[in-house]
Design a protein that fits this description.
Blueprint: E1 9-14, H1 21-38, E2 44-46, H2 55-67, E3 72-77, H3 83-92, E4 97-102, H4 117-130, E5 142-143, H5 145-166, E6 168-173, H6 188-192, E7 196-200, H7 202-211, H8 218-229, H9 239-256, E8 262-266, H10 273-277, H11 282-290, E9 295-296, H12 301-314, E10 318-325, H13 329-336, E11 347-352, E12 365-368, E13 382-388, E14 392-401, E15 407-416, E16 426-431, H14 435-444, E17 451-455, H15 460-469, E18 477-479
Helix pairs in contact: 1-5, 2-3, 3-4, 5-12, 5-15, 8-9, 9-11
């Protein structure tokens, strides 16, 4: 199932009519050449129709890039640029937009060949604000052809996330479980950022599941699961039920996506799920997430949203974990301290019952949900995918709405350490620089829930720009601050 967007960026050059048009033409061509020499040419489309100097040119350029199938736009100031026409481009384009500008090439051509785009970018940003138009402007937006090509490449993951959000429906089943108010947040901000939501009862899901009894596709789905699990297929008797449930969700997606291209699911998994369905959905959640259809646990709507954003940015499977428990002193002393320069407070264990894609686990096996089995018959808690998460770089992050409908986010880059967790579920030993301070002065201080999304790699740069683009205020866009950079609430005498 294709559930993640691709971005095709149309690059449109603009020119102030009192500057040489050839500056924009030649500089645009140089940027495209630099891009295609290093990256996939299918990512970018060079608008050849015109150099935009007027509102009429703007309309012609929009028609051309739309006809070419572009879903993202790069407005390129080859010279000073026409501030009205160039910002109307962004206003009327239905998709994410970036602005970049040309640096001067040589001291030998600073009369007839000087473009002044460094100045023009200031006017462009001012006019975008006047029109309340959102646009991505890189940290260093004025550059040479090769530098501008890099900026466009950096824009791609941001563009994919924005395109995805504008075409996303989150499907949820049931209210948040009792005593899980931390995962309960107003849905108003979903609409504000262009996301649709369909909220359903668990009874609707149970009915759909029952209607899939005897589905002729179940044996083939069971075979898929057997091949994936391999030697870890410790509970073969539960696979037909899990296959039936997976088919139920996949069919629900197709019949309920409506006009939306992409879907994420916020699923219910307790307290009544396991007793009524006869299993837990963790393994199926892991499989769908591995297909690019993020599924959050415990009806965590903003968790599913966060996962989807990370999947768009990374073009890879993500997961949702509890920021769960401390690393024991003896484990830190034996397995972390001798090998890594992390303080004990930099480490923690990220865990969930068994929802992480098998390809993100160092090993995996089918098991039961140990926590639920403490109060329920073990046979109804089968269906978790257990294993230690693969070591390597990660980004821990979350987008959240506060109770008063304010968007808030955090991003923290770190790694999963190659340490045997000696525990259960989908779990790993995580290390994030200055995690202790971040935990206290961001996660606790700003009331984030215990669920965090995990992308496998360092994607903080792109996620930061995505959150800025969709309107997270700067004071609510949080990160793990390094030593010497105090949080506003941090006690300077502690």
């Amino acid at each position: 199932m294709n559930n993640l967007p691709k971005a095709k960026v149309g690059i449109v050059a603009v020119s102030r009519d009192c500057f040489p048009e050839t500056l924009s033409v030649n500089r645009r061509k140089a940027v495209v050449d630099a891009y295609t020499a290093k990256y996939d040419a299918a990512d970018i489309y060079e608008c050849p129709v015109c150099i935009v100097e007027s509102e009429i040119h703007m309309v012609q350029a929009l028609e051309d890039i739309n006809a070419a199938g572009c879903n993202a736009l790069c407005v390129y100031l080859g010279n000073f640029g026409p501030e009205i026409a160039e910002t109307l481009l962004a206003k009327h384009f239905d998709g994410p937009v970036m602005y970049i500008a040309a640096a001067e090439e040589t001291q030998n051509d600073l009369k007839g060949g000087r473009g002044d785009a460094y100045c023009g970018m200031l006017n462009a940003s001012y006019n975008l604000k006047l029109r309340n138009v959102k646009a991505y402007i890189p940290e260093k937006p004025v550059g040479t052809a090769s530098e501008c090509a890099e900026m466009i490449h950096d824009f791609l993951p941001v563009a994919r996330a924005i395109i995805g959000l504008n075409n996303l429906k989150i499907i949820s089943f049931g209210p948040r479980p009792l005593n899980f108010l931390a995962c309960n947040a107003p849905i108003k901000q979903l609409y504000n950022i262009g996301v649709e939501i369909e909220e359903n009862s668990e009874l609707d899901l149970f009915e759909a599941y029952k209607l899939h009894e005897g589905d002729e596709r179940i044996p083939a789905k069971v075979k898929e699961m057997e091949e994936e699990l391999g030697a870890g297929n410790n509970k073969p008797q539960i696979l037909p039920r899990l296959a039936q449930y997976e088919l139920t969700l996949l069919d629900w997606i197709e019949t309920h996506r409506g006009y939306r291209k992409y879907v994420a699911i916020a699923g219910k998994c307790w307290p009544a799920f396991q007793t009524q369905f006869g299993f837990v959905p963790c393994y199926v959640n892991s499989r769908l997430t591995g297909m690019g259809i993020p599924v959050s646990c415990e009806v965590d709507i903003y968790g599913a949203l966060s996962e989807f954003i990370g999947a768009c940015v990374s073009e890879d499977a993500v997961t949702l974990l509890d920021i769960n428990n401390t690393v024991p002193d003896d484990m830190y002393a034996e397995a972390v301290k001798p090998q890594f320069a992390y303080e004990h407070t930099d480490t923690f264990m990220g865990f969930h019952c068994g929802n992480t894609s098998s390809r993100k686990l160092a090993f995996c096996n089918m098991s039961y949900q140990m926590i639920m089995a403490r109060t329920l018959p073990e046979e109804v808690t089968q269906g978790t995918l257990e294993g230690d998460i693969i070591p390597g770089d990660i980004t821990f992050y979350r987008l959240q709405s506060t109770a008063d409908c304010r968007l808030r986010a955090y991003i923290a880059q770190g790694e999963v350490l190659p340490v045997d967790t000696k525990s259960f579920g989908s779990i790993g030993v995580f290390a994030i620089p200055e995690m202790g301070r971040f935990y206290r002065h961001v996660l606790i201080e700003k009331n984030f829930p215990h669920h965090g999304a995990v992308a496998f790699g360092h994607f903080g740069k792109a996620l930061y720009e995505v959150f800025k683009y969709i309107g997270v205020p700067s004071e609510d866009l949080n990160f793990n601050q390094p030593k010497g950079m105090m949080y506003p609430t941090e006690n300077p005498f502690a």
